[in-house]
């Protein structure tokens, strides 16, 4: 697995050698090539949570999943969460909701209903700031802790799972989750339900990539997603898949013991 801790010193050494070659050989081509490669790798590592470049993230169950997948819903609770819960109940599927603290404050009854119906709640920061990828460690910790407190006050459980907004990981996020002792949960199947407007395309995209052990990313924030679920849930059932919560899929604890 690619790791920032291994590659960063390698880039540094290679960069220094290339700089010396430039100074004494007259061509800085290698130096700029390494600089470009390091910048590219940093950006790729920050936005592809599966690489585990800056921090370890669980993103699927590799072995012995036996038709089990985990549906996950980010950015709620919202007025659409009730319909998502109704559909999950109809198919007896369990899911994991990565809630934004502010949204839990706005819809506390919905957060309680998620728990009462046997689903799991994870942390998706207090405010889901657009600038999340540029926050310092202490600001990421504040975002995590404020969300933890709100979830604990609303449903009586302190989440262990954290999903970074936009799937961004970087050194600040890596240190922050060490501080709050939380685990990063990514995904292996992304519906793109917030950027694709056509419901059929979202449905086809998820089905085409579907494998046992998948963690599937949705957002419980639109009627579009609800409509996709109305097709997807019967498809999953017909093809022998069941959705379980992330803790169940990965054999982890969802809440602080
Ligand atoms: Zn989000």
Key structural traits:
10 helices, binds zinc ion, 257 residues, 6-stranded parallel sheet, TIM Barrel, globular, alpha/beta, 2 domains, 3-stranded parallel sheet
Domain count: 2
Would you give the CATH topology of the largest domain?
TIM Barrel
The helix/strand series, from N terminus to C terminus, equals HHEEHEHHEHEHEEHEHEH
What fraction of the residues are assigned to beta strands by DSSP?
5-15%
Please compute the radius of gyration using only Cα atoms.
Answer: 20 Å
Count of helix runs: 10
Helix fraction, binned, reads 40-55%
Question: What is the number of beta strands?
Answer: 9
* Uncertain parts: none
The fourth-level CATH homologous superfamily of the largest domain is: Glycoside hydrolase/deacetylase
Proper CATH architecture of the largest domain:
Alpha-Beta Barrel
Structural category: alpha/beta
Give the rounded overall mean pLDDT: 94
CATH class of the largest domain: Alpha Beta
Bound heterogens, unique: zinc ion
Instruction: Specify the biggest β-sheet.
Output: 6 strands, parallel
Ends apart, CA distance between termini: 30 Å
What this model shows, in words?
The protein is of the alpha/beta class and 257 residues long. It folds into two domains: 4-47; 57-250, Glycoside hydrolase/deacetylase (TIM Barrel, Alpha-Beta Barrel), CATH 3.20.20.370. Helices cover 50% and strands 12% of the residues. The protein is built from ten helices and nine strands. Strands 2, 3, 4, 7, 8 and 9 form a six-stranded parallel β-sheet that branches. Strands 1-6-5 form a three-stranded parallel β-sheet, with no helix packed on it. Helix 1 packs antiparallel against helix 2 (29-47). It is globular. The two termini are 30 Å apart. Bound molecules: zinc ion. Zinc ion is lined by residues 74-75, 124, 128, 165.
């Amino acid at each position: 697995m690619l790791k920032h801790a291994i590659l960063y010193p390698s880039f540094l050494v290679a960069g220094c050698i290339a700089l010396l070659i430039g100074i004494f050989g007259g061509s800085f081509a290698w130096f700029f090539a390494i600089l470009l490669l390091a910048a590219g790798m940093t950006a790729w590592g920050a936005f592809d949570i599966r690489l585990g470049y800056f921090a370890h993230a669980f993103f699927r169950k590799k072995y012995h999943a036996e038709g089990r997948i985990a549906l996950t819903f980010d950015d709620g609770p919202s007025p659409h969460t009730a319909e998502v819960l109704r559909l999950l109940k109809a198919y007896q599927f369990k899911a994991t909701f990565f809630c934004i603290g502010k949204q839990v404050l706005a819809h506390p009854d919905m957060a309680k209903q998620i728990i009462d119906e046997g689903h799991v709640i994870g942390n998706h920061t207090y405010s889901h700031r657009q600038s999340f990828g540029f926050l310092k460690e202490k600001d990421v910790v504040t975002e995590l802790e404020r969300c933890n407190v709100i979830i604990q006050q609303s449903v009586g459980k302190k989440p262990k799972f954290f999903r970074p907004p936009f799937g961004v990981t970087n050194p600040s996020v890596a240190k922050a989750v060490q501080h709050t002792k939380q685990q990063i949960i990514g995904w292996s199947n992304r519906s793109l339900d917030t950027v694709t407007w056509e419901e059929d395309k979202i449905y086809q995209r998820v089905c085409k990539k579907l494998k046992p052990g998948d963690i599937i990313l949705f957002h419980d924030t639109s009627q579009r997603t609800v409509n996709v679920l109305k097709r997807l849930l019967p498809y999953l059932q017909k093809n022998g898949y069941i959705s379980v919560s992330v803790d169940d899929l990965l054999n982890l604890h969802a809440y602080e013991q």
